[in-house]
Each structure stands twice: as structure tokens, then as C-alpha cells.
Amino acid sequence: MAKLTEKEREAFEKILKTDLGAINSKFMNQIKDFWDIARKEIKKQKGWDKLEKEKEELKEEKREIEQRMHDIERELHSEELRVEQIVELGGGPNRYDKYSGANFYGIPVESQFDYEIVEFIRKNIDIEIPSKILRDIGEASVRALAMAGTFEEAREAYEKFYSLDFRRYGVDIPPRLDEIKEDTKRLLYAQEALQLADNRKNREALPEKKEEIIDINFEEEDVS
């Protein structure tokens, strides 16, 4: 028999390694198949297959909800104002010819939705008349003070303004000292609060509730 050469031995070893590799690859593929089968079975035993199905259903619901939210956002996104509307509401162009600054008595108006609110107010409330009257009062009062040449004239101008009595309609204009002095109930309450704050021994205590002081009648008293 012919003796096996080293080159022939290396060739046989190479063939054997290739075959062994093919066998091992097939075996590993079978292990992977077994793994998948066993994995599905364990999931089924634990009830996770149902959970995964529920998860997929929830994902689909989530996609539908997100799409609906997107549709709603698109519906709520109002169109921008037209140039003529911006100008009508006091706006104008900037240095880039971009129109902005529309407002309704200081409230920004930035969309067709906002403009519809303005139109609704205009249709249902006659706001121009009181607005003009208030502007006239302010301008007239400032003009009267500016034109006063003496202290007496300035005081008379302010007296005329104060006599309009906007406090009666809830405007937070400070009352006169005489009016504060006549409001004995609230004055007494304030004085007692100050006295309590100055008393170190009772600094942590709260004033005892006194109905005759706290129960204040804000309606004007008949002084006639």
C-alpha cells in the first residue's frame, strides 16, 4: 500500500473539517428550531402569547388614536390672518414686509379663529361707545392737569375726575382719607391686625375671628 503523504493528509483534514462544519451548522440550526418551538410553548404556558396579542392590538389602537389626535390638531389649527385683517386690527409690516401686531384692545389676534371671536364681540356687544368715552375721560383729565397753572386749578381738575366715582363700579381707585375714616369696620380690623403683628408674644398666633369686624358690608351706606 502506498504511504499517505503529508499533503494528502492535509487535504483529508480539510475535507473532514468542512464536513464537520456542515454537520455542526445543521445541528445548530436544529437547536435554533427547538429553541423557537420551546419558546412558543413556554409563552403559551405562561399566557404571554395572549399578552403579546393584546400588546399588538393596543399598538394598533395607539396608532389610530395618534392619527385621530393629529386630525384634531389639524382641524384646530386655524388659518392665519389676511393682511387686510391685520391692518384693520392695528397691525402692520416689519422691515421684512411681514405683517403682524393685530390686536383687539390689547389682546393679540393671531388667527382666523381669533378674528371670529372679535367679530362675535362686535356683533353682540357695543364696545366702541364705552371705550371711546373712557379714552375721552383719560385724555380730558390729563389735558386739564397739564393746562393747570396753579395748585388750586390742578386740584379742581382732579376733583372733577374723582367725582365721576368709578369706585362705585368696582374700579380699584384708592379712596380718600375721609372715606377710609368713615369705614370704621375695616379700619378697626386693619388696626387690630397691625397691633397683633407688633405684639411679640402673640406673633405666632392668628387673630380671633370677630364676626362684627369680618362681616363687612361693601354696599354704600346711606349717609343722608
Which keywords apply here?
single chain, 224 residues, mainly alpha, 4 domains, two-stranded antiparallel ribbon, 4 strands, 65% helix, disordered C terminus
Describe the protein.
There is one protein chain. The chain is mainly alpha-helical. It contains 9 helices and 4 strands. The protein has helices at 6-46, 48-76, 83-88, 112-124, 128-147, 151-162, 177-182, 184-198, 211-214, and strands at residues 92-93, 99-100, 103-104, 107-108. Helix 5 (128-147) packs antiparallel against helix 6. The radius of gyration is 43 Å and the shape is elongated.
Tertiary shape: elongated
Instruction: Kindly state the number of beta strands.
Output: 4
SSE sequence, one letter per element: HHHEEEEHHHHHH
Q: How confident is the prediction overall: mean pLDDT?
A: 82
**Helicity, in percent?**
55-70%
Indicate the structural class. mainly alpha
Rg, Å, rounded:
43 Å
| Largest sheet report | 2 strands, antiparallel
Q: Which stretches are poorly predicted, pLDDT < 50 over at least 5 residues?
A: 211-224
How many helix segments? 9
Number of domains: 4
What percent of residues are in strands? under 5%
Q: Which sequence of strands runs across the widest sheet?
A: 1-2
Our measurement of the CA-to-CA distance between the termini, rounded to an integer number of angstroms, reads 146 Å
